[in-house]
Amino acid sequence: MEWRYLTSNGVDAAEGLAEDEALMLSHGRSEEHSPSILKLYTYSDHVALCGRFQHIEAEIDIDACTTSRTPFNRRPTGGGAIVMGSGQLGVAVLTRSPAEKSPKALLMEFSEGILAALATLGVEAAFGGKNDLKVEGKKVAGLGLYVDKEGALLFHASILADLDISFMLEVLNIPAATLGPDAVRAVESRVTTVTRETGRQWTGADLISVVTDGFVTTLGVELIADKPTEREQLAADKLVETKYATDKWRFMRSPHPDATATSVVRTPHGTIRAYLSLQGDIIKSALFAGDVNTIPEPVADFESRLKWSRLSEKSVVAAAQAAFSNGTGLDIEPNDLVAAILDAGSRALGREIVAPHRLGSCYFPDTSKEPVR
Amino acid sequence: MATQNIDGFEIRTDLVYDVGAHLWMNVTQDGIISVGVDPLGIETFGTLAQIALEAPPINLERGMHFGSMEAEKFVGTLVSPIAGLLTERNEVVMADPGIVERDPYGDGWLIKIKMSTDPTTLPYLTSGADAVIEAFEKRVAAYRLEGVLAE
């Protein structure tokens, strides 16, 4: 089977996003069958992209972007805010959405090419978290899936060949950015790169041939080098003008408000703080950081399981049960960390999430603004 | 209301389904059909973060967009399983998508469509308890094979 194959480097935020969407055109239900497309590309240094339904001001520091001349925009795919540039390889697969396959099955299927590519570099990654590829619990690639009105599918991945963590902390409003000198360490304990895993410097462009081979091997397809058709290019140009370069798209609002809050947990090793970010009652991110050199893997796993969960006693306890089967690694009970999340969540939402007695003796909410346990 | 537990999923067997799209249809009164997401769809989509529904009235064709959603696993379009006039949308689920997860067959309905054809007569939809059970058993088995359902 033949697929169209497109590559480019240093693309602009609006142009790159518009081209992805324009390439979906030929895969809608009302179109004649067209070959699927694999597109591998890098953005110019740097761009900041939030997820489809996020509030961009909550996720991206607009002032910092303006100062550093970093374009910011909104992806059609979901998930959290990311920084893209020469250090990250963008992967797009465009095809007609198969009716019989679930979104997770499609994410897993199209991830196989990336996993195979990483494996050839000695990087053993696996599908993990909500929509990530991970190496020993650390994110090395983020995945997204978008199906449009016509049933055309866009699978998108960003592979971290390398990452300028300090820059990311400067332009993204992620909880770790508030940790001062510990911020880089906090990110490094949760995110990795191909450069770090292989001990050799990689750029996104360096990965193109490796990832190409990975897709050819796993999908059994023949890639035919191509470029956007005239129709696709015209559509992309129009999408830049009418959508991706407009403030209406970039600053689109969701009906679900953002909220953040923290709480503090005392452990025998020192004090750690839980940072919780919500959109509506969905947990965007949960992060524990403080007086411990490295956050234990079960705690990082707990954070990962909480992401995209609904903030409720049931879901937080379920995440804890799955993550802490062998303890927390902090010499405290799982309930302490559950209670910390629910405490922070209660303040973020401005209401109690669970009756105080429900979690037993570990849960005694303090009425002060930021209780210490 | 007739339900059947199919490998962990409580499926109403008295409704009409577009099994592939994970949408159920219920004829609520003369020609008015409510449409919602079935429990298996909710499981495979993941947590529903956002639901946007088109404002009525709209003449829908089968396969036509009537809304969009962001779920844990994807951002996607909701397409109509039948042709008819969109008469009502559920404003409550737009404000609180969690209702769809908590009460998919009840308060979690999405839209209402006025239709002149009985949906049970449409060949691309599934109705009748035996056919519904068989269709969901096949779909659950396929998803388990794909590894997309928790064991």
Q: Biggest chain pair contact, residues each?
A: A-B, 36 and 30 residues
Strand residues, percent of chain B: 35-45%
Count of individual helical segments of chain B: 4
Number of H- or I-type helical stretches of chain A:
13
What is shown here, in short?
The complex is a heterodimer of chains A (373) and B (151). Chain A folds into two domains: 2-250, BirA Bifunctional Protein, domain 2; 258-362, Enolase-like, domain 1 (2-Layer Sandwich).
Task: Please tell me about this protein's structure.
The complex is a heterodimer of chains A (373) and B (151). With 373 residues, chain A is an alpha+beta fold. Chain A has two domains: 2-250, 2-Layer Sandwich (BirA Bifunctional Protein, domain 2); 258-362, 2-Layer Sandwich (Enolase-like, domain 1). Chain A is built from 13 helices and 14 strands. Chain A has helices at 13-22, 56-59, 62-67, 103-120, 165-171, 183-188, 194-198, 208-219, 230-244, 247-250, 297-306, 313-323, 334-349, and strands at residues 2-11, 37-43, 47-50, 72-74, 82-84, 88-96, 126-128, 132-135, 138-147, 152-160, 222-225, 258-267, 270-279, 282-290. In chain A, the strands form three sheets. An eight-stranded mixed beta sheet of chain A has the order 7-8-9-10-6-2-1-11, sandwiched between helices. In chain A, strand 1 (2-11), helix 1 and strand 2 (37-43) form a beta-alpha-beta unit. In chain A, helix 4 (103-120) packs across helix 8 (208-219), helix 11 packs antiparallel against helix 12 and helix 12 runs antiparallel to helix 13. Chain A is globular. Chain B has one domain (3-146): OB fold (Dihydrolipoamide Acetyltransferase, E2P) (Beta Barrel). In chain B, the strands form three sheets. A six-stranded antiparallel beta sheet of chain B has the order 3-4-5-11-10-7. In chain B, a hairpin with a 4-residue loop joins strand 3 and strand 4 (23-29). The longest helix of chain B is centred in the last third of the chain and has 18 residues, at 129-146. Chain B is globular. The mean pLDDT of chain B is 93. Classes of the chains: A alpha+beta (373), B alpha+beta (151).
